[in-house]
Amino acid sequence: AQSVTQLDSHVSVSEGTPVLLRCNYSSSYSPSLFWYVQHPNKGLQLLLKYTSAATLVKGINGFEAEFKKSETSFHLTKPSAHMSDAAEYFCVVPRSNDYKLSFGAGTTVTVRA
Amino acid sequence: EAGVVQSPRYKIIEKKQPVAFWCNPISGHNTLYWYLQNLGQGPELLIRYENEEAVDDSQLPKDRFSAERLKGVDSTLKIQPAELGDSAVYLCASTGQATNEQFFGPGTRLTVL
User: Mean pLDDT throughout A10-15?
Assistant: First the structure.
C-alpha cells in the first residue's frame, strides 16, 4: 500500500528565509507524488508533481521538491518565504496507480514578518 | 477557466437535521469526487463519479449519506440525519480525461450543533 508521512505538523519561518517541508513515502513501486497547498478557506491547489521524468521538480510560487528514492523522501523547499506562503501543505501519493489519493496529515506553515 | 464551484460555503445546523451540498465541476470534467476533511487532517475520499455513475462509493456511510449526479455534470451530497461527528469540510474535486490532476473546490464547512 502507498502512504506518505509528513514529519512536521507545524513549521514557522521568518519572511525571506528558506522553507523546508519534509515528506517520506512508502510504496511498493516508484510512485507519483504530489504537493498540494490549502490556503485558509480555499480549496486545495496543486503545487507540483513528480511522475518519474525528473527527480527535481519545480512548481508554482517558487517551490520545488526533490524525489530521493534511496531516502524514500519528497521534501518541499522554497529559498525565500513570503507572507502569502502561510497555508497548509499536503504531501500526496496515489494509493494505487490510479485516482485514489492518500494524503499526509498536513504541515501548517506560519510566516513571521 | 472557472474552477470547481461549491455551495454553500458554510452551513450550521442542529443534529438530526438534513443538509445538502452542491458542486459544479470544471466544464468538461467527467470525473467528480467528494471528500471529507476533518480538522487537522488530509481529505478522505467519500465517492467518485464517472459521468453519472458512482464507480467508487465504498467509503460513503450509506446509512446517512447519499449522493447523486443525475446528468453527469453537477452533483449533490446529502446527509440525513446529521450527527455531531459530521462537522467537517466537504470538498468536491474534478478531473478531466487528459490528466489525473484533481482540481478542488473551496469546500463547504459544516458545523453540526
Answer: 97
CB contact under 8 A, A99 and B44: no
Rounded distance between C-alpha atoms, residue B27 and residue B94, angstroms: 9
What CATH number belongs to A3-112?
2.60.40.10
Q: What is the pLDDT of residue A97?
A: 56
Written as one string, the DSSP assignment of A10-43 is EEEEETTS-EEE-EEEE-SS---EEEEEE-TTS-
Fold classified for B5-112? Immunoglobulin-like (2.60.40)
Q: Judge whether B96 is closer than 8 Å to chain A, CB to CB.
A: no
Beta bridge partners of A6: A23
Of B42, B56, B100, the CB nearest to A105: B42
* DSSP 8-class letter at B102: P
> What would the pLDDT profile of B71-90 be if each residue is shown by its tens digit?
889 999 999 999 999 999 99
Cα angle for residues A8, A13, A15 (degrees, 5° grid): 150
